[in-house]
Amino acid sequence: MSCELCSSPGGAVLWQNALCRVVRVDEPDYPGFCRVILNRHAREMTDLDPGERDGLMRVVYAVEAAIRETMGAQKMNLASLGNMTPHLHWHVIPRFSDDRHFPGPIWAVPKRESGVPAERTARADGIARAIIASLGP
Amino acid sequence: MSCELCSSPGGAVLWQNALCRVVRVDEPDYPGFCRVILNRHAREMTDLDPGERDGLMRVVYAVEAAIRETMGAQKMNLASLGNMTPHLHWHVIPRFSDDRHFPGPIWAVPKRESGVPAERTARADGIARAIIASLGP
C-alpha cells in the first residue's frame, strides 16, 4: 500500500516543520492555492492527538492569513477531504468572484471559462515570504 | 444585507453553546452530514481570535468523532467554504465508498445513482446522543 503523500512532497514546498509542510498547488485556475500536508501518515483530524491537531491548524491559519493578505482574496476556502489520498492534508484556496467556479466549490462544474488576470498569478509568488514572516523560516 | 445564518438556525439544532451550534443537514444522499455554525457573524477562521478558533474546532472534532463512531464512516470530510453564505460554518460529512460522489467531493458531478441503505439513514439518529456524550448537554 503506497501512499503518494508519504513517498513524495506533493508539490513545491514553501515551508515546513517537524509536523507538516506547506506546498504550492500547480493549478493555473487557482493561483495561490496551497496545501498543508501532515508529514506522518494519518487519515483524520480525530486520529491526531490534541497537540498535533492544534499544531497543524496553527499552520493552516497562518497559511490562510498569508494567502488572504498576499492575494487579496474575496473568500477563503478550507477543506480536508482525502477521499482519493487518505493522508491528512488541508486545501487552502483563495477565491474570487470571477474565478472559474465561484460561488461553487472548486470541485463543482465550472461556472465560466478560465481567465485569471496575470497580476493575480504574479502575486502568488509572495506567499512563501508571508508564511515565513508569520511562522519563521 | 441579511444573512441566512444570522436570521435562522440553518437546520435542526442537535447541540449548541455560546459560541456555535451543530445542525443536522437535510440531505438524503448524506445521512449523518452535520454543520457546525458560528453563532456570531464572521467570514473566515482568521477573523476569529485564537480562543474562538480553538473553541470552534473543539466542537468540529467532537462532531467528527461522533459521526465516525455513529455512522461507521469510511472517510470524514471537513470543509469551511462559505462562498454563497459567508458566515463561518463547517461541513462535517461522513463518506462511504458507495455514496453518490465517492471518491469525489460531494459538490462534484455524481459518480452513481443515489442509493443509501436504510440502515445508514437510521443510524444518523444517534449522532446527537454521541455529541452530548462527548461535549455535555
Structure description:
The structure is a homodimer. The first copy, chain A, is an alpha+beta fold and about 140 residues long. Chain A has helices at about 5, 50-70, 120-125, 125-135; strands spanning about 10-15, 20-25, 35-40, 75-80, 90-95. The first copy, chain A, has a 5-stranded antiparallel beta sheet with strand order 1-2-3-5-4, covered by helices on one side. In chain A, strand 1 (about 10-15) and strand 2 form a beta hairpin. The longest helix of chain A is centred in the middle third of the chain and has 22 residues, at about 50-70. The termini of chain A are far apart. The relative contact order of chain A is 0.20. The mean pLDDT of chain A is about 95. The interface of A and B includes residues 61, 84 and 102 of A. Strand 4 of chain A pairs antiparallel with strand 4 of chain B.
